[in-house]
Structure formats: structure tokens, C-alpha cells
Amino acid sequence: MQHVCGGRRIGTARMKYTFNFRDVWSQWDYIAEGIGVTLLLAVVTMIAGLMIGALGAAARVYGRSWLGVLVTGYVEMIRNTPLLVQLFIVFFGLPSLGVRLDAMTAAFIALSVNLGAYSTEIIRAGLEAVPRAQIEAGYSLGLSGAQVFRHVVLAPAIRIVYPALTSQFVLMMLATSVVSQISAPDLFHIASIIQSRTFRDFEIYAVIAGVYLALALAFKLFFAAIEHFAFTRR
Amino acid sequence: MIREFALNDVYYLLLAARWTLALTSLAFLGGGTVGLLVALLRVAPFAPLRIIGAGYVNIVQGIPLLAWLFVLFFGLPILAGVRVSPWIAATVAFSIYAGAFLGEIWRGCLRAIPRQQWEAGASLGLSFVEQLRHIIVPQAVRVAIPPTVGFLVQLIKNTSLAAVIGFIELTREGQLTTAATYRPFTVYIAVAAIYFAICFPLTQWSRRLERTLRVAR
């Protein structure tokens, strides 16, 4: 865990600070490794979050009432507590119940459970926007319940909430940075390692911020491309 | 020395929650000011201003809050030449962050007012600022309250990240209590419960406001 206490002591007089980005660039191999881990975390979390969200939303809209209550409880619990605390409960808390997880597994679990709750809420709004008549039309074509849900309900629902869902995904990609606090070797954790090696605190975090900005842009473009190719009517 | 997790610790956690709320209030004040400016830039009748507003939002929302905290914590001392306390670094970081999100929310609310309202104002000879002040903003405020309360919940939860630069609030107090009692599960569940007790009523309130607003329209 990171323990950076107190401000840096730079005296009261204005001091000249020389920026030095060379030390940071020389660590580029590590940064690239960190980017890989962050991308892996982000992509796996998005897939898991989407699946949990689809199931949760279906349970809330079409499930039995006790199932709906259960899902609502899950969504409210996750949405009203910080991700960092959820991560600490999984990584530091669960071992005292006998469940010992390594940092990456704990990170995957905490991030997926978190994104799953937000996706449930978003996809639920989409499901509720699909007209009943459309579902009945699906059944009258002889589709099974699962087929109706997958093709007639879920696909149009995802299309409706696509912008909300993908912007939540991009926010989640950025939020994966909190896993550095349980020492999962993501981009942000790499930054703290480089910081302790080079003592170039400001430079390293400025560079890392730029890398995240580029990643966020890449994801936005990627999602826009998917939208273009998948949802444009031909 | 390891001691038991007792009622006293819950009391200390509750005391630390005050700092969570204090930081949230400062961030909301700072972020609200920035957000108002951003929202106005984004509806300004002059393209370069709109681009500046959009650029600010995209850059701030494209960088993790954690990175903002670290960049400012280490960067502000270089800029100012003096030691910067976690209080200042956190307040500035959260204001920048909240400003982008509130700016986007409020822009949406200004945009939600039909264009004819602007045109009606213009036809009465009101200037852009007068149209905003007398016609658009009074209507937009009603639309803005539910999502703003919703964002307040996000802000409260996000202040937990200030713990990593040594700002003592609820989450940091939880870390300290864990170190002293070695009861991580109990402590973090208690911390989560306190966050929930603060955030859940706000979430419900935001939803109720949204419903009454929809009925009123």
C-alpha cells in the first residue's frame, strides 16, 4: 500500500526546479508492461461487467420478486460505497474469512462486481424501453424464451443504452488505477515504482496522466467504431 | 501492539467521516464554480469558447482522479515553491475533477430548455447574458437538481481516494484502524456502512426529485 504522508519539503523560498523527463523515458519498458496490465484489467472487467449487468437487469425486470429485491440490494450496496473500500474488503478483508486472493484476482473480482452494478442499472433502463409488443412478436415467430431475450430484447436494449454504457466503461478503465493501492502491477502501480527509483515524482505522474488520456481516447474511438459498424442500418 | 476493534473505533471512524464531508463540501464549492464556468463556455454563442469548454471536459474526464491527485500533490509545490498540504492538493484536484462533471451535467440542463425560449428572449431584445439570467437558468435549475445530487454521491465516494496522499478522512482512518486492530474485514465493512449511510439517503432523494420533476412537466 502507498504511504505518502505530508507534503514535500521544498522550503519557503521560491526554488528553481529543473524538469527531467529523461529518467522517466528510460523506464519506458516498465510503463509498456503497466499499460498491458491496465488494458487486460479493463477489457476483462468490461466483459464481466456486461455479463453481470445483462443478467442482473434481466433478473430485475423479468425475474421473480425475491430475485429483484436481491439484485436491487446488490446494486444499491455497490453504488453507494467507494470502489477503493470494496477493493480493500475483497483483498484485505476476505482473508480473515479464509479466502486468500492474490492482488490481480482481487482486482478482477472487485472491479467486475462494481461495474456489474452500474451496468445492471444502465441495461435495466434499456430493457424497460423495449415495447411489450416487440417481445410478443418474437414469441409469435416461434422463438424460445432465451432467443427472444437475446435477439429481441437484449440487442435493441444495448443499442439504446450504448452511449451510457460505453462512457461508464471508459470511466471504469480509468478507475482501474485504484488497484495500484493493493499492489496489482497496473500502470499506476508501475508509476509509483518508477517514482521510488528515480525520485521524479511530478514527471512520472504527468507522463502517466498523459498515457491514461491517450488510452481513454483510444477506447472512445474504439467504441465509436463499433457503434458505426454494428448499429448503422444498412 | 494489537488491540481489539471496539465501539470506540466506530466512534473514531464517525469522527473521520466529518473530514470526508468537509472535503466534499470544499470540492463541491470549487467544482461548482468551475462547473458553472464550463457550462457557460459550452453554450456560449462563440465557437472558440465552446471548444475550450469541451477540451477542458475531455482532458479532465480522460485522466483518472488518482492521477490528478498525484500530479497536483507533487506539481503544486513546484508551481508555488512552497510545501503543499494534502488539504490543498485534494481540494484543488477534486475541484478540477468535479468542475468537469458538473459542467457537463449543467450544460445538459441548459440544453434541455427548448431553443424557442432563447429565441423568445432574443426577440424581446435581451442580450445573451440577460437571456441566460432571466429565462434559461431559472428553468434549468429545476432540471439540474436531481443529477447534481446524484453527482454529489459520486463525489463523496471519490473523496476516499484522498486517503492515498495522506489526507485523513474515513477511508484513511479505516486503514489506520486496521493497522492497529488487525481486523480488516470488520473495519472496512464498518467504513463501507458509514459511506452507505451517507450516500443512500442522497441517492433516494435524487430519485424522488427526479420523479416529482417528471410529473410536474
What does this structure look like?
The complex is a heterodimer of chains A (234) and B (217). Chain A is mainly α and 234 residues long. Chain A has one domain (28-231): MetI-like (MetI-like fold), CATH 1.10.3720. Chain A is 75% helix and 0% strand. Chain A contains nine helices and no strands. Chain A has helices at residues 22-25, 28-62, 65-79, 83-93, 103-129, 132-140, 145-175, 187-198, 201-231. In chain A, helix 3 packs across helix 5, helix 5 (103-129) packs across helix 7 and helix 6 crosses helix 7 (145-175). Chain A is globular and about 75 Å long. In chain A, 40% of the residues are buried. Residues 1-13 of chain A have low confidence and may be disordered. Helices cover 83% and strands 0% of the residues of chain B. In chain B, helix 5 (115-123) packs antiparallel against helix 6 (128-158). Chain B has one domain (7-216): MetI-like (MetI-like fold, Orthogonal Bundle), CATH 1.10.3720. Chain B has helices at 7-43, 47-61, 65-80, 86-112, 115-123, 128-158, 170-181, 184-216. The mean pLDDT of chain B is 92. With 217 residues, chain B is mainly α.
Brief description of this entry?
The complex is a heterodimer of chains A (234) and B (217). With 234 residues, chain A is mainly alpha-helical.
In CATH, the architecture of chain B is Orthogonal Bundle
**CATH H level of chain B: which superfamily?**
MetI-like
How does the helix and strand content of chain A classify structurally?
mainly alpha
Distance between the termini of chain A: 52 Å
Mean pLDDT of chain B: 92
Largest interface: A-B, 53 and 48 residues
CATH topology (fold) name of chain A: MetI-like fold
State the end-to-end distance of chain B: 61 Å
Q: Beta-strand percentage of chain A?
A: under 5%
The helix/strand order of chain B is HHHHHHHH
Mean pLDDT of chain A, to the nearest integer, reads 89
CATH class of chain A: Mainly Alpha
Largest β-sheet summary of chain B: none
- Rough outline of chain A: globular
User: What assembly state would you assign to the polypeptide chains in this entry?
Assistant: heterodimer
For this structure, what is the CATH class of chain B? Mainly Alpha
**CATH homologous superfamily placement of chain A:** MetI-like
Residues in helix, % of chain B: over 70%
* DSSP summary, beta strand count of chain B: 0
Q: In terms of per-residue confidence, which ranges of chain A show pLDDT below 50 for 5 or more consecutive residues?
A: 1-13
Basic shape of chain B = flat
